[in-house]
Design brief:
heterodimer; A: mainly alpha; ABC transporter involved in vitamin B12 uptake, BtuC; two-stranded antiparallel ribbon; B: mainly alpha; 2% strand
Chain lengths: 346, 290
């Protein structure tokens, strides 16, 4: 009960930010940070709970972004000389769902292929996948406009067509939308990892041969995690595309995957709050550094910080804080047996 | 037919440098179990050193090449000692993240020092190409091919016939037993990383004068080296050599007959195809799962 109250309070606090912040640039940073937090939450499902380091995650983000943009803008494809396939523009909410769905389908496909291998090979396969998608976006100019980018992507709208409609031109509604989807992804991941499937994922992260031996269908759960994760990353991409309203092949750059990975690792992989804390830090840090350093120096600091964090806080901030808190409480009174019993069950 | 012959020749010349990159990465990967994300930055470093020595410092071209490779070896040893030595025994994901951090830092240092503008390097070779029948090739490319082949042969000789090479092979087969037999694992690791880095720097120093030098040139080089290593099989030097030539051939033919825009995609398509049909690579020596 208490925990739920705190959760609602935190969400309300974040929801109230546009009312008192009073600076649109800061709000913009919070929106992009929120979008990256959704992507980081989705990556955490793979990296933190199944233990697979996927470095192609930006592909799902970009696929969601491009699909949503193309469906909302409409496109035509010259299939043969005489026949051209014309796709009429569709409403944004529909295109957004298409983006999620297509990203999830790609997740299923790539999961089927790449979970044949593990470890370093898996990492390289996922990077390759992201690079291939980036090169397709760059070169398939008929469809994606290549480096000229897709422009004038319509923003989100809300309401009943013809009667009352709100178009998300302003920052505030976009912020609330991103926040709502952040909360939604958090809840989805929490429900998932607390379910039977989530326990199976954690089991195979800890010891794959053992998990297999007690009947956990490894590939099934890994693919499930990838599909959910890819869909969520696709949603983040869709949010991005309809907020920024322009999308070019640079959304597939490896550096964005790295940003998501840093967020998850810093916050604490395999914890629910980790990607949010890490996301807030690494979403706001570049802006904080912008005043004192040029972009190169900023990235140098980023790289060095990443090394330092992996060295000194390999588990991330959230587990470190939790341990510290437990120890402090432990000194006052020993943990109640009920608590430990629940942990064993979980 | 002439066009095919020309593609074939180009592929042989490009393949030599790809093989250098692949051998460097496969050595590090096979012996140390480290996914070396700084490999592409060593390649860039080699190219920039070549630029520094040849252009502002006016050093002799061949001496500059030697110096660039030696500096690459030194930088590799430095990275090993500073970043990887404290991480012995850490799991593969942790070292991978450290190497990614190092990669980002290094690439942006290059951008900071030399700016993002592409640099070109003069070379002392005659401008007229070497013409053999219907195909032609520039002298500078012939030089690249000859040096690359010499370096590949040298690496083979080092691994096969020297004491260090023997220690490296022993470490590859079984690290613990090798340590029990008195092999200094630390030295082997440092040497492996330094040699691998030197080969990457050599590839960069060789290709720098042919193409242009810019800070992000290493990204594609690193990703291609990964493709070559997957193709050839983990830790297989022979596999990496052949893999380098195969990748170059696929790129040349793909660019020539399909679309030059997808030239760089060939390597990645290759990875995906190999994983579908032969997940252990062409010349794998060890099981790759685990």
């Amino acid at each position: 009960m208490n925990r739920q109250l705190i959760e609602v309070g935190v969400v309300l606090l974040f929801a109230s930010v546009p009312l008192w912040l009073g600076n649109l640039y800061y709000l913009h940073i919070l929106i992009t940070t929120g979008i990256f937090i959704i992507a980081a939450i989705s990556l955490n499902l793979l990296l933190g709970y199944t233990g697979q380091l996927s470095l192609g995650h930006v592909a799902f983000f970009g696929i969601g972004a491009y699909t949503s943009a193309l469906v909302s803008l409409g496109f035509d494809l010259e299939l043969t000389d005489s026949y051209t396939f014309v796709f009429e523009p569709k409403p944004v909410w529909f295109s957004f769902l298409c983006g999620i769905l297509f990203a999830a389908v790609c997740g299923w496909l790539i999961g089927k292929i790449s979970f044949k291998v593990r470890g370093a090979y898996f990492v390289i396969v996922t990077i390759s996948f992201a690079e291939v998608v980036r090169l397709v976006a760059l070169n398939w100019i008929d469809l994606t406009e290549g480096p000229m980018a897709l422009n004038n992507i319509p923003p989100f709208t809300l309401g009943i067509p013809g009667l009352w409609e709100l178009t998300f031109y302003k920052k505030e509604p976009n912020y609330w939308l991103v926040l709502a989807l952040c909360v939604l992804s958090f809840v989805i991941v929490r429900r998932l990892v607390e379910s039977r499937a989530g326990r199976a994922m954690i089991a195979l992260r800890e010891n794959e041969p053992l998990a297999t031996s007690v009947g956990v269908d490894v590939t099934k759960y890994l693919v499930l995690a990838t599909v959910v994760s890819a869909g969520m990353a696709g949603a983040a991409g869709g949010l991005y595309t309809h907020y920024v309203r322009i999308v070019d092949p640079d959304v597939f750059l490896f550096i964005y995957t790295v940003t998501m990975v840093i967020m998850v690792i810093t916050g604490g992989k395999g914890t629910l709050l980790g990607p949010i804390i890490g996301g807030l830090i690494f979403g706001i840090l570049p802006e904080a550094l912008r005043g004192v350093a040029g972009p190169e120096v900023q990235w140098i600091i980023y790289g060095i910080l990443m090394i330092l964090i992996v060295y000194f806080l390999p588990q991330g901030i959230v587990p470190a804080l939790t341990n510290w808190w437990r120890q402090r409480e432990g000194h006052q009174d020993p943990p109640a047996p009920k608590e430990t019993a629940r942990e064993v069950v979980n | 037919m002439d066009q095919l012959l020309q593609h074939f020749l180009n592929a042989m010349i490009l393949g030599g440098t790809y093989a250098l990159l692949g051998i460097g990465l496969t050595l590090i990967f096979g012996i140390m179990r480290v996914v070396n994300f700084t490999h592409g930055e060593l390649y860039t470093f080699g190219a920039y050193m070549m630029f520094m020595f040849v252009m502002p410092l006016q050093t002799n071209f061949f001496l500059a090449l030697l110096l660039a490779v030696m500096l690459g070896v030194a930088l590799g040893a430095l990275i090993e000692i500073m970043l990887l030595k404290p991480l012995r025994g850490a799991d593969i994901d942790t070292t991978m993240l450290i190497m990614i951090g190092a990669w980002i830092a290094m690439q942006n240092m290059e951008q900071f020092v030399w700016s993002g503008i592409a640099k070109s390097i003069n070379n002392p070779f005659p401008a007229d190409p070497l013409v053999i029948g219907a195909v032609s090739v520039s002298w500078s490319r012939v030089f690249v091919f000859v040096v690359a082949c010499a370096l590949i042969a040298g690496t083979y000789a080092l691994i096969q016939w020297t004491k260090l090479g023997k220690a490296m092979r022993a470490t590859f087969q079984d690290t613990e037993t090798a340590a029990l037999m008195g092999v200094r694992i630390n030295t082997v690791y440092i040497a492996t990383f330094a040699i691998g880095s030197g080969l990457a720097a050599a590839a960069g120093a060789l290709l720098g004068p042919i193409f242009v030098v810019y800070p992000t040139m290493g990204d594609m080089a690193a990703l291609k080296s990964f493709a070559i290593v997957i193709l050839g099989g983990l830790g297989s030097v022979g596999g990496a050599t052949i893999g380098g030539f195969i990748l170059a051939m696929m790129e040349e033919l793909g660019a020539g007959y399909i679309s030059s825009g997808y030239r760089d995609a060939m390597g990645f398509l290759l990875i995906i195809i190999i994983l579908l049909f032969r997940p252990t690579g062409l010349f794998a020596q060890k099981e790759r799962i685990g």
